[in-house]
Task: structure prediction
Amino acid sequence: MRWPPNKSWTSIYSRNGYRHFVAINYGGKKKERWVALVSVLDGKSRFVVPWSEMQDNSKWISGWLSLAKDEANSCSEEFGNIELAKACLHPSKDSGLLIPSEKNLIRPWDYD
Result:
């Protein structure tokens, strides 16, 4: 998978009770790359995931998959992530997710 990450993701398993997420920030180099995610349905559900985990199709799928209602919001799994101190959990100034945004400051995102 190419870097930088796509913006939309579906988790194979429930994460904090949710399965659909938006990437709001990313960073790191080589094996230390990470992606900050926020739930589409609950903006308070935020966490950081190692990029290596995001590339594992048994854990994450790029884009949003249609899910049955009973599958979409069931709490089932707690999981470990990169230490939260390693990454901020709000959109960065250059993410392109803040309004207003100056186009010349926006970092690229992958749009597969």
Q: What stands out?
A: The first helix runs from residue 51 to 54.
